[in-house]
């Protein structure tokens, strides 16, 4: 099963945007996510609807952050992406006739629901400011370039 990496990719892009300080084009962001600019525009639209980013058209335009990183959580971004599935495992059959399989599904279902609730709670406790602070600690330790074009040059 293919994993949905949009959350990771969007968080990556949002942190680059925070570092950039100015507008970033869909093309530059697509390069960072190794995808097509159309995909970026589609993903960023959900963030724009929530007021997390804004976009400006024309020369010098692009995407910019529209919110405080200290108030934006991983859960907020996950929800803006349409709440993609967090776990890649599930039951073999949704409505089994076999009583054994019903027992298995009930047990797995409860465990998966609990795991997802814990993960979402953790996502709600981590802000993008937390990620940015971790980035800055790592940057100071490694002295690596942080600009979008340099880091993601082909």
From TrEMBL:
One of its GO terms (cellular component) is cytosol. SUPFAM superfamilies: Winged helix' DNA-binding domain (SSF46785). GO terms for molecular function: DNA-binding transcription factor activity. Pfam families: Rrf2. Gene3D superfamilies: Winged helix-like DNA-binding domain superfamily/Winged helix DNA-binding domain (1.10.10.10). InterPro entries: Tscrpt_reg_Rrf2, WH-like_DNA-bd_sf, WH_DNA-bd_sf. It comes from the Bacteria. PANTHER family: HTH-TYPE TRANSCRIPTIONAL REGULATOR YWGB-RELATED, WINGED HELIX-TURN-HELIX TRANSCRIPTIONAL REGULATOR, RRF2 FAMILY. This is Transcriptional regulator.
